[in-house]
Prior knowledge:
mainly beta; Immunoglobulin-like; about 10% helix; about 50% strand
Amino acid sequence: xxxxxxxxxxxxxxxxxxxxxxxxxxxxxxxxxxxxxSTDTVPDKNGDPCALVKILVVDSIAKLEGxxxxxKKSSPTELWAYMSGGAKEIRIKPTHxxxxxxYFPNFGINGVEGKRTYIxxxxxxxxxxxxxxxxxxxxxxxSVLPKTAMLWIDGVPQETSSDGEYSALLAxxxxxxxxxxxxxxxxxxxxxIGKGDMTPISVSLVSALATLxxxxxxxxxSLYVDKKSVGFLPWNGNLKEGMxxxxxxKDGYRSQQKTIQLAQQQKLDVAFDALSAIQGNLxxxxxPFGSDVYVDGVKVxxxxxxxxxxxVGNHNVEIRKSGxxxxxxxxxISEGQTASISGSLTSSASSSNSNTLSSxxxxxxxxxxxxxxxxxxxxxxxxVEAGSFDMGATPEMQAPYEVEKPVHRVTLTNNYYIGKYVxx
Length: 424
């Protein structure tokens, strides 16, 4: 029993001794006269011959990392590692020692070459009993903008961070990063992980959108981009790279289209020519002659006359003359066609007189009409001219009837008379 205890104690002591040690590079160099890489070739992923690194070990190797395509154990103390040409580093994870990172440029070799053989000689280094154990790595810290951008470390996508800040534990040595986001130009770089404090890396992506300005001398023109309305001209905005269809439209005018090709961050000014009006004609023959003709509220001349160059579409046409009832109608103008309207305005005096005649003994004075009823009782009426006005109870009226609400717009096409006084 005592003998077994001593054996276990010895094994434990040996394990403690091993774990208190770390490997270090005794030497790393090109073996000029060693032709093994040429005679015992291994192709890389591109079909090119690999470089061969012969590792002289003092312990079994659990894992090799860093562009190692194939391993082969030549002897208990020698392990072959076939690596891609240009590789600059290797990570060695021994069974009983701490992991070791070897950066080739530190030994005068900027990158291994295909069909060449190298010797990596390792030895154990005894650590003092009070020296802390190295974790074999450290944290990286990267902040990205926009915060929705995706981050790749050594080609591996990282879990999305809502605040755009990333950190994780990495092995000592050189690492790569790549940041991407839709509508932005991606950015890549590299950084080194050491034993000291990590300086945070800030990566701000630049927008890849192109800047577009569109103009047209015709006023109030609408712009459509890829069949979608974006507003009126002049217009400035951002678009993704690629091909886009621009179209300018205005009622009564011929539309114009242009196709553009945009590159990332390109600035482009697009100027359309003045739009061509689509026109027809309007013939007006109203009496009395000299009556004013209004189209969409704008006086254009007098009757009778043919008005050329009227935009196609529906228009509100009014014939006006003092002392006559205004004629109002909607006229549709077609391209290259002449729309005709004719008629005679009704005299306002005739209209009033006809109303007066309907009441025997009525008298008309200016805008007032008096209608006798009986026994000296008269009804006084006032003239209301044709037009548009608001009717109904206004906010300042107290306790109005519901039927008087709300205030609404009323349009009268003819003059009429209403009682001057209301009995309540």
